């Protein structure tokens, strides 16, 4: 009995410490964003806000560049996710039918493009030739289809009871009608999961912006953040005190920007956690 | 007839099948067009690795690829005599191996410990905390670590209060790789533990029962029941990870590195970006990218074959 208890105590200490250490970086950012910038400059802010103020947050929210980036990111996330879902579902449905003629051939194509990519340079040159550089479409098209997500949906469709679909077919419904009226309404868990997969990918992607966008008006939130980090990090330690005072209020601004641009993720987090975990288990049942 | 179509599809002629199911092909068409344009057409651009690119040879940059002159393997021979490329290749392998050694075991240990926590509510709370960093972008994580490691950041304040000198972690060739490893663990250990955690949940409870009857304590149960039960999952994940050895973490490194640490942190993909798009040396950039894609594909295919042979499971 005594040994059991000892084990549990040690376990709880380890796990609580681990959980706390994991939270520290997040708490630190939140604390810096909500503290009086003067304390941030002096490095006096720990993991709790000191001299609580919303000034830094409001300052970030009023910046034109920030607002622009926020708008761009919201647009590409919504339009991109919609487009991606259409492309994913319409490919997954035919490929989920064992009787679909040419299924193997098409599957090979999809597996091939999952395994082999032309690389950065040919893609960039293509985007340039299509006139997509410095357009919002470059940001949308660079992530609007994922073979992996398509396979997740396809596997889910394959797992649906066949009898329901057959009944619809015997009633004379076309494939399209069966998909829309029978299959999709039964698939809300996987559709929610994959929608969130795409949504988070769009919201979090920073590299497509770096590759295809130079126009400041079209920078995504993550790219804006990336620029901000590169600006404030390199000059940091070499700065003299006077310079430090000027640049280090940049620390508060950076933390506030991180916080504000992550809020949508935090708001959705309960759903993200639930559906992403589901996605892992659906995705691991490969057929 | 409708019934036949469902039960004996192979007996129907293709033209008949097509007439009945043309909408399936129509449905697939937009995605096929999309991947043709954005995945297959760029593959023609690979020829650039064997040509001297002249961007103005035709009216668009992509058509110029067709018009450019063939030069055979010139770029590849040049590549292997370039110290920066060899350095990037070496860094990619070193960082990947370091991550396999230090990052890979972490979620396994965490999943085992988590499964030992008896209170479901506490288990859920811990999961909620440790999954969170997975949903942050690398740009955000880079920002968080820049802030933690800055001269007035948490880590340096701690060092100073313990009587040590301040350290500029992100500018140090000695410390940058440890920073990559720690930030990688922080972002992904919770998330990666899910697969192990659900594997443990699927283990036969009777084995634990039997172990308890034999007088095994909790540690012994972990050692003799949980870990052996996890081996297939661990092997599968490890093989997959080794197959992806060329992926040292582009998104992470690109967001965190700077010219001072190129020596230890420049990997193949960051090199492709800097040479191909930064310096506009398109042919060399394509050649490096092609090298990366081909070796990467061979490794993934072999690791999948190995996984199939060893565990009877396949990654796809």
Topology (elements, then pairings):
The complex is a heterodimer of chains A (287) and B (316).
Chain A: H1 2-34, H2 37-41, H3 55-62, H4 64-96, H5 103-115, H6 120-129, H7 136-141, H8 147-159, H9 162-170, H10 175-186, H11 188-204, H12 207-212, H13 221-234, H14 241-284
Helix pairs in contact in A: 1-14, 3-14, 4-8, 4-11, 4-13, 8-11, 8-14, 9-10, 11-14, 13-14
Chain B: H1 2-7, H2 14-44, E1 51-52, H3 61-67, E2 69-70, H4 74-79, H5 83-102, H6 105-116, H7 120-131, H8 138-149, H9 154-161, H10 176-201, H11 205-213, H12 218-243, H13 250-256, H14 262-265, H15 268-278, H16 282-311
Antiparallel strand pairs in B: 1-2
Count of domain modules of chain A: 2
Give the CATH level 1 class of the largest domain in chain B.
Answer: Mainly Alpha
Number of strands of chain A: 0
Low-pLDDT runs of 5+ residues of chain B are: none
Largest interface: A-B, 107 and 108 residues
Overall geometry of chain B comes to: globular
Alpha-carbon distance between the two ends of chain B: 35 Å
Shape-level CATH architecture of the largest domain in chain B: Orthogonal Bundle
| Strand fraction of chain B | under 5%
> DSSP strand (E) fraction of chain A?
under 5%
- Order of helices and strands of chain A, N to C? HHHHHHHHHHHHHH
So what's the oligomer here?
heterodimer
Features:
heterodimer, A: 287 residues, mainly alpha, MetI-like fold, 2 domains, 14 helices, 78% helix, 0% strand, B: 316 residues, two-stranded antiparallel sheet, 16 helices, 2 strands, globular
Would you write up a description of this structure?
The complex is a heterodimer of chains A (287) and B (316). By secondary structure, chain A is mostly helical. Chain A folds into two domains: 2-41; 64-284, MetI-like (MetI-like fold, Orthogonal Bundle). Chain A has helices spanning 2-34, 37-41, 55-62, 64-96, 103-115, 120-129, 136-141, 147-159, 162-170, 175-186, 188-204, 207-212, 221-234, 241-284. In chain A, helix 4 (64-96) packs antiparallel against helix 11 (188-204), helix 4 (64-96) crosses helix 13 and helix 8 (147-159) packs parallel to helix 14. The longest helix of chain A has 44 residues, at 241-284. The model of chain A is unreliable at 234-248 (pLDDT under 50). Chain B contains 16 helices and two strands. Chain B has helices at 2-7, 14-44, 61-67, 74-79, 83-102, 105-116, 120-131, 138-149, 154-161, 176-201, 205-213, 218-243, 250-256, 262-265, 268-278, 282-311; strands at residues 51-52, 69-70. Chain B has a two-stranded antiparallel ribbon. In chain B, 39% of the residues are buried. The longest helix of chain B is centred in the first third of the chain and has 31 residues, at 14-44. Chain B has 316 residues and is mainly alpha-helical. In chain B, helix 5 (83-102) packs antiparallel against helix 15 (268-278) and helix 8 crosses helix 13 (250-256). Chain B folds into two domains: 2-72, no CATH class; 75-138 and 168-311, MetI-like fold. The chains are: A mainly alpha (287), B mainly alpha (316). The interface between A and B is large, with 107 and 108 residues.
